[in-house]
Amino acid sequence: MLMHLDVYLLTELKRRNNIMEGEKNKDKKKGRNTTTTSDSAEQGDIEDEMGLTGATADDAEAEFIRKICDTEIVNGPNLLGAIEPLMVHILSNPNKYSDPSLQASSSLALAKFMLVSPETCEKHLQLLFTILERVPQPHIRANTIIAIGDLTFRFPNLTEPWTPHLYARLRDDSVLVRKNTLLVLTHLILNDMVKVKGQISEMATCIVDSEERLAALAKMFFFELSKKGNAIYNIMPDIISRLSDPDIGLPEDQFKIILRYLFAFIQKDRQAESLVEKLCHRFRASRSEQQSRELAFCLSMLNYSDKSLRKLQENLACYAEKLSDKEVYDYFTSILSKSKKVIKQESKALFDDFQAKLLEFHQKGVPMKQQQTRPVKSRQQRLRPLPYRPKHLKIVNSECKSIICSR
């Protein structure tokens, strides 16, 4: 229906319009041979040469088709308009109409109705996403995902608030649903129909999906995304922040696999410098030892230049207290080991000083704020025994004189 209106009918209208325009042009050419011409005729000739008349006609025809789609096909007093309430009733009462084939046909038909009219789309989007999340049959959810992808392509502004629900299907139990969701999101993002936001971390977790085919598709998506300027660099801080969040509970080995793959796309020195500073600041907000270790791992994945290493040293205060953890300290020492080749001779003293400070904070294992405070008593001092005082001695005044109590 939509293809017929938007393609075939619109093309036919344009063809007829071109024929009419051609006939008008012939008549005007005949009129040009006469000796008298008016200002309006000259203005008409100018518009014809610039193609304004044809463009205006095309716009009018497109608007005519759009109005038919919006108000007359599925919303008007016709057969299709009468069927819509029936479909909505069936889908809104899955317990009463539990037949899987009926539910599948109804959901697909409703999605096609929504593709025609933005009014119908907006009215039933909530119902369609409810079907996507609650219907137990995987094939219905998989088909609904594809339909939502088409709706997003046609009416992106209407579906934009529901985007998080679309990303959530990447965690679906069904492999088919996860695969369709990944393919739909890949198509929408790479064609700039969906903005890349924080939910992109859901796409990143697909890199470690148990299904090898899905993991390969996810890697292909990020490979294609890396060709779009600074796209990977722009999303890296959000991905790291979300995947390292203790509430997410992503295993450490999977975190490393994902970030090791993504950091391979960060090649520019300026990008590395900026990420060093951003990651260092994240240490202050880390809520667990594991999160600090994962941030240190991310820093170790970057390629360091003299400038980026200086950034790392300038932000020492952000992660100094985390250096007491051996794993965090080991990641920083590995950074220094890799960076020895890029250090300029004039920065050698600074490099050695930075290395010494890392070791110092690792050995102390206390926050920087406590560096100037009174040292804590050692274990031997705390366990030193009190002076022996016999029970028959008693303090009698402030000068600590003692008397022997005789009985």
TrEMBL record:
Q: Which superkingdom?
A: Eukaryota
Organism lineage: Eukaryota, Metazoa, Echinodermata, Eleutherozoa, Echinozoa
Which Gene Ontology biological process is one annotated for this entry? meiotic chromosome condensation
The molecular function terms of the Gene Ontology recorded here are: histone binding
Q: Name the GO cellular-component terms.
A: condensed chromosome, centromeric region; condensin complex; cytoplasm; nucleus
Could you list this entry's UniProt keywords, alphabetically sorted: Cell cycle, Cell division, Chromosome, Cytoplasm, DNA condensation, Mitosis, Nucleus, Phosphoprotein
Record keyword Nucleotide-binding present: no
**Family to which this protein belongs:** Belongs to the CND1 (condensin subunit 1) family.
Q: Does the keyword Cell cycle apply?
A: yes
Which SUPFAM superfamilies does this one have?
ARM repeat
Q: Which InterPro entries match?
A: ARM-like, ARM-type_fold, CND1/NCAPD3, Cnd1_C
What is this protein identified as? Condensin complex subunit 1
A Pfam family for this UniProt protein?
Answer: Cnd1
Instruction: Give me the segments passing through the membrane.
Output: none
Region Disordered, as annotated, extends over 20-51
Q: Where does this protein come from, organism-wise?
A: Stichopus japonicus
Q: Which residues form the Condensin complex subunit 1 C-terminal domain?
A: 140-300
The entry's localization annotation reads: Chromosome; Cytoplasm; Nucleus
